[in-house]
Every structure is written in C-alpha cells, then in structure tokens.
Design brief:
By secondary structure, the chain is α/β, with parallel strands linked by helices. 33% of the residues lie in helices and 26% in strands. The strands form 3 sheets. A 9-stranded mixed beta sheet has the order 16-15-14-13-7-12-11-8-17. A 6-stranded parallel beta sheet has the order 3-2-1-4-5-6, sandwiched between helices. The longest helix has 20 residues, at 347-366. The protein is globular. The N and C termini lie far apart (48 Å). The structure holds alpha-L-sorbopyranose (SOE).
C-alpha cells in the first residue's frame, strides 16, 4: 500500500482549479511513489469553498488556513492565493514542518520572498514554486537541446508573454491590477514566467533596462459600477536584459496585446541553431539547426513517448494542454518529497526571480541600467 500524502490547498479560484486537477490526475497517469490525498481546500467564503471542494474533489473544506496548516494530518500546503498572503501562509506552514508548493511570483517584494526562503530553510522543509511552464514537454525538450549543445553558444533570449484581457476599460479592478494584492501588474503576473524560463534555459540575469506602462489609470470597483478606483500597477512591462553568460535579450509582458490570449513565447538563438516556443501551440517546438543542408526551422511535435512526461499520457500526436504542465509539476514534487530532496524551481529560484522583477521596476523608475541584486 502506497504511503499517503495529505494535501491542503489554500485558495480555490483559477490556480486552485488547475492545481486541483493536477492532484486528482497525477497518480491516475503516472507511477507516483506516494499517493496524494486531496484532504482540504481553504477559502474565505464558506459557501464558495464548500462548492469548490465538492466540484474539485476535496474531502473537506475550511475557512481558516491558520487551522489547516497546523493540522498534524497535513503533509503538503499548496498556496494558490494572491501574492499578499504567500508570506504569512508560508511562515505558518514551514513552522508546522509542511512541504510547500507556492504559486508565482513567490511574493510581492524581495523582503517577503527572502523571509519565505529563510523560513523553509530554518525549518528544513521541502519547497517548490509553481512555474509550471518549465514542465511543458516541449519546454523541457528545449532545455535538453540546449544542454546537449544543439544550439551551441547562446546569443539571445527573446521572451514575450502577451494577453489582452485588460484592454476593455470596463474590466473592474480585480486583484491582479491591485498592487497591495498582486505586488505588480503584467510584470509579476506574466513577465515573471518569462523571467523564470530565461533563467531555466539561458542563465542568470545580471542587469536590466526597462519601461513599465499603465494605459488605463482607473477601473470600476465592481463590474458595471460607476465608482472608479485607481490602477496602481503596470499594464505592460518591457525590458532589455543581460545574462551572466554574455547572452543578451528582451523580456516583455503585456495584458494589452489585443488578439494575444496566452501567448507565452520565447526564441533562443545560438551559434549552431535556434529554438522557438509558443504556449498557444504548446505541443510544438520550432527548431533550426545549422547542421545539414536545406536547413530551415522545422516543427518538432513533442508527443513521443521519449519526450519529457509524454509517456504518461497518450500515443504520439495525441496532444496535451495547459493543465498537464501542473500535473507534471506536482508529479515532480511528489517524487522529491519521497526522496526527501528539494525540487526545482524552488524558493531559491523564487527569490532570484523576485530580484529580477525588482530590478525591472527600479530600472523603469531610474531610466538607467540596474543591476540585479
Ligand atoms: C494571468 O491571467 C494568468 O492567470 C497568470 O496569473 C498565470 O500564472 C498564467 O499561467 C496564466 O495567466
């Protein structure tokens, strides 16, 4: 009988839904050394969290994360709340010796992120940040191609994460456009993913120059309300970046890119070849190699059993989706817990990512190159 791993999830909206699906599916499709049990989901609104528990398959529900993270029967705390509560939940969960999975960005400031890292280290608990896109098979394959030298020396990382759900001025001031809750706008919400991917695929960022822009400066407090509230976060974040390897690049996040829905794209150019990935076509990796005649970009369909994670799903060509990247993330967390190892990306990566976000914010204010701490 497999040892059980009792999960408590804090938060139940969009990320809670994606993580619930992952916890439910992971041991149905992959050999897991431990059996995750969806024990309890937490939220402030009792009626809504009760409905979410029933809908997503959690055994219990609670309106007190403080009580849940202290329960002796809980092994893992999965934080799916806005960034303003990541620190207090982490401090309590670490003190209660729980393994922690936390949604990105790790926190709303460097100080909070460093306090979270210190807490998990002091309490010697396993910690992971949910940058799920590293575990899209085509992205993991991209890392393998870079590691095996297929691209040669890397010159460029070009990352763009584009959405358009805020172009409409009638979209109310939801938490993702409130600095106190989200820490920043497109920068922390979506450019943070491209920052993490650039660190996963190319290396550490040492300096940035940037421009943060807010296009709509106030929004209705509620849908249809005539009461307006100021927007205090960026709608678009554009940056030039230098890597420790000597590579250079650009990272852009915007929620005003009309027509782009979840266009998380990167292109990497090296001395021997290039790769390009677009989340909206996430089973495909564009690959260009200088080797051989008649070269040109070709499409690798990353759906072979030999491609990362795909063996757990379907025969070749039976493509997978956005939600599978979360399943792969919790799979590797379960394996890490079983082996008592710290998976990647973890809170160290969360702090490094936060320092890049902070440098981008500083550079936009100073209009000068800023070093990443
Ligand atoms: C923003 O709309 C968002 O939900 C991000 O917060 C997620 O991290 C990203 O995966 C999808 O888009």
């Amino acid at each position: 009988m497999k040892k059980k791993l009792n999960i408590a999830m804090i938060g139940y909206k969009f990320m809670g839904k994606a993580h619930s699906n992952a916890w439910k599916q992971v041991s149905r499709f992959f050999e897991t050394p431990l059996e995750p049990v969806m024990k309890v989901v937490c939220g402030r609104n009792e009626e809504q969290v009760k409905e979410a528990a029933q809908r997503f398959g959690w055994q219990e529900y609670s309106t007190s994360w403080e009580e849940v993270v202290a329960r002796k029967d809980i092994d893992v705390v999965d934080i799916c709340t806005p960034g303003d509560s990541h620190l207090p939940i982490t401090l309590a969960a670490a003190e209660n010796k729980k393994a922690i999975l936390c949604e990105k960005p790790l926190a709303n400031t460097i100080t909070e992120a460093e306090q979270m890292l210190a807490a998990v280290k002091q309490n010697a608990v396993i910690h992971m940040i949910c940058h799920n896109y590293r575990r899209v098979p085509a992205v993991t394959l991209a890392r393998q191609l870079i590691d095996d030298g297929s691209l040669g020396e890397i010159f460029h990382y070009r990352g763009t994460y584009l959405q358009d759900w805020l172009v409409n001025p009638n979209v109310p001031r939801v938490w993702r456009v409130e600095k106190a809750k989200a820490g920043s706008g497109a920068l922390g919400d979506i450019a943070s993913h491209s920052v993490d991917l650039s660190r996963y695929l190319v290396g550490e960022i040492t300096e940035v120059a940037s421009l943060l822009k807010t296009f709509i400066s106030e929004r209705p407090v509620e849908p249809g309300s005539s009461t307006m509230a100021p927007v205090d976060v960026d709608d678009a974040a554009l940056s030039l970046v230098k890597f420790d390897s000597g590579a250079v690049g650009t990272i852009e996040g915007s929620r005003f890119a009309t027509g782009r829905k979840n266009y998380n794209r990167f292109e990497i150019n090296g001395s021997r070849g290039s790769i390009a990935f677009n989340l909206e076509r996430l089973n495909e990796l564009q690959f260009y190699s200088e080797e051989g005649a008649n070269s040109g970009f070709r499409t690798i369909l990353a759906t072979e059993p030999t491609h990362p994670y795909f063996g757990g799903w379907w025969p070749p060509g039976h493509i997978i989706g956005y939600e599978h990247s979360f399943t792969h993330t919790v799979l590797d967390l379960i394996k890490a817990i079983d082996e008592q190892k710290i998976p990647t990306p973890n809170f160290e990566d969360g702090v490094r990512n936060q320092k890049v976000l902070d440098a981008i914010e500083r550079a936009s204010g100073s209009q000068r190159w800023e070093a990443v701490d």
